[in-house]
Amino acid sequence: MHILIDQFGWLTGALISAFFIFFRYAIMAGFGYLIFYSWKRRRFIHRKIQQRLPSWYAVRHEIGHSLLSAAIFALVGLGIYGLKLAGWSQVYTDTSEYGALYLVFSFLVLIVVHDTYFYWMHRLMHHPRLFKLLHLVHHRSNNPTPWASLAFHPLEALIEIAIIPVLVIVMPLHPIVLFAFATWSLTWNVVGHLGFELFPAGWLDHPMLKWLNTSTHHNMHHHYSKGNYSLYFNWWDRWLGTNHPDYEATFRALTEGNDNLIVKGVREK
């Protein structure tokens, strides 16, 4: 960000940053959409979580709001740079200052802290007094596609990323780690909104893998608009009993081809 601002100024730098954020989203979401909704749709249709396909109007809604989110994220990037200029940020550029192991450690900390933040923030946004104001835009995609990955109301987009400026104040973070985290987060958002189940049968029976969320997990959240609040890991939903009661049955129906496990309303014959 500082290179863009130094080279082009604050406003142009923000616009260029927003373009690159949206471009990265378009590449990742577009690739998922091309593969699963067009090129190889017949091959993977048995893994479609909700059998109906979303309308082009719904896709346009997702892309339009994602464009707004990219602009919000770029503005937050400007804010982080402003924190650095003010001496409040712990962003550093010399990797030798903390070493390679710290890069890995700080990346893992970002993931765990963000997952925790997301669960509680997301659950709070489902409060009736907040849902229509903040979260309804995202839930208009009740049968989401990869394009829904960043389709937030501007206020929700701001809340979604608000944890990052806090973290750059309280802990040293390298730009490489911030970029890797942004890529990780977007990847899981694309997977969660894909609309097709990617993971193999037996995933939820594995003692370690079951703690990672599946495409089915977040798709059911969009369909029912309750439960399944977590993002990357399934521990908060498991610990607090907020997994949808039919989550595991639905996943098995998709991955094992057992029609007796099909959950009515999510995937019907």
Short characterization:
The protein is an all-alpha fold and 269 residues long. 63% of the residues lie in helices and 0% in strands.
Number of helices: 12
> Which outline best applies?
globular
Q: Report low-confidence residues grouped into runs of 5 or more.
A: 260-265
Q: What is the residue-mean pLDDT, rounded to a whole number?
A: 91
End-to-end gap: 50 Å
Secondary-structure element pattern, one letter each:
HHHHHHHHHHHH
Strand portion:
under 5%
* Main β sheet profile: none
Helix/sheet category: mainly alpha
Fraction of helical residues? 55-70%
Q: In total, how many beta strands?
A: 0
- Radius of gyration, in Å, reads 19 Å
Domain count, please report it.
1
Describe the structure.
There is one protein chain. The chain has 269 residues and is mainly α. The protein has one domain (2-261). Helix content is 63%, strand content 0%. It is built from 12 helices and no strands. The protein is globular. Mean pLDDT is 91; it is low at 260-265.
Strand and helix layout:
Blueprint: H1 2-8, H2 10-39, H3 41-44, H4 56-85, H5 100-125, H6 128-139, H7 154-161, H8 163-170, H9 175-192, H10 215-224, H11 235-240, H12 247-256
Helix pairs in contact: 1-2, 2-4, 2-9, 4-7, 4-8, 5-9
